[in-house]
Amino acid sequence: MEKNMVQAASQKKAPTSSDANLSIVLSLMCHTTCHRQGGETEKFAKRAIESLVKKLRKKTDELESLISTITTNGAQPSKCVTIQRTLDGRLQVCERKGFPHVIYARLWRWPDIQKMEMKHLDFCRFGYDLKYESVCVNPYHYERIRSPTDEREKSMHHPISTRNNTTYDTTETRKAFRVTRSHHVYTHLYFSPYISTPQAYVFVENLHPSLNLRSYIF
């Protein structure tokens, strides 16, 4: 029954802030990343959207902005869509807690995004990291950036080439890397965090004569 209502809502034009809450929720459900998945995921999405629409009921302009930006996939310029910041900065939905801007970004844009990957855009007045009492949860007021972990892993996967064109792959071991070879060659690579271009200093513990390894910068 509920699925049929959602499907019917997807075929109608976008609602307005004057429409009933259920009509707005069903329309916004059609644009979630979990649309038609069913189960707990879709149940969570519906509860999260119901909670947001209810909070925005007295802020007509923000509710209109939410409807417009979600139903057009961000094609229309939109205002901040704000909710009150809680004491711990998180929002509880269906007995699950999460950061509000992350919850709604996962619902409508990036289902796998993490908090550290989100950055509010310059025009967003109430971005989560600004620490205001109100928090913007408009998913189109944020951009996805590479997490520090992704950047670190990317810089750490450069191969090392020797003079005889033998290439070795690196594997992270905390802050150091170790390159091994079957005939007892061990090298340790340390990256300097103070330089933008990755540099590796190769220290040879047991150097095989044929490799002629020295320090390399890559």
TrEMBL record:
<dbReference type="InterPro" id="IPR003619">
    <property type="entry name" value="MAD_homology1_Dwarfin-type"/>
</dbReference>
<keyword id="KW-0539">Nucleus</keyword>
<dbReference type="GO" id="GO:0046872">
    <property type="term" value="F:metal ion binding"/>
</dbReference>
<dbReference type="InterPro" id="IPR036578">
    <property type="entry name" value="SMAD_MH1_sf"/>
</dbReference>
<protein>
    <submittedName>
        <fullName>Smad4</fullName>
    </submittedName>
</protein>
<dbReference type="GO" id="GO:0005667">
    <property type="term" value="C:transcription regulator complex"/>
</dbReference>
<keyword id="KW-0479">Metal-binding</keyword>
<keyword id="KW-0805">Transcription regulation</keyword>
<keyword id="KW-0804">Transcription</keyword>
<keyword id="KW-0963">Cytoplasm</keyword>
<dbReference type="GO" id="GO:0003677">
    <property type="term" value="F:DNA binding"/>
</dbReference>
<keyword id="KW-0862">Zinc</keyword>
<dbReference type="InterPro" id="IPR013019">
    <property type="entry name" value="MAD_homology_MH1"/>
</dbReference>
<dbReference type="GO" id="GO:0005634">
    <property type="term" value="C:nucleus"/>
</dbReference>
<keyword id="KW-0238">DNA-binding</keyword>
<feature type="domain" description="MH1">
    <location>
        <begin position="23"/>
        <end position="151"/>
    </location>
</feature>
<dbReference type="InterPro" id="IPR013790">
    <property type="entry name" value="Dwarfin"/>
</dbReference>
<comment type="similarity">
    <text>Belongs to the dwarfin/SMAD family.</text>
</comment>
<dbReference type="GO" id="GO:0005737">
    <property type="term" value="C:cytoplasm"/>
</dbReference>
<dbReference type="Pfam" id="PF03165">
    <property type="entry name" value="MH1"/>
</dbReference>
<dbReference type="GO" id="GO:0006355">
    <property type="term" value="P:regulation of DNA-templated transcription"/>
</dbReference>
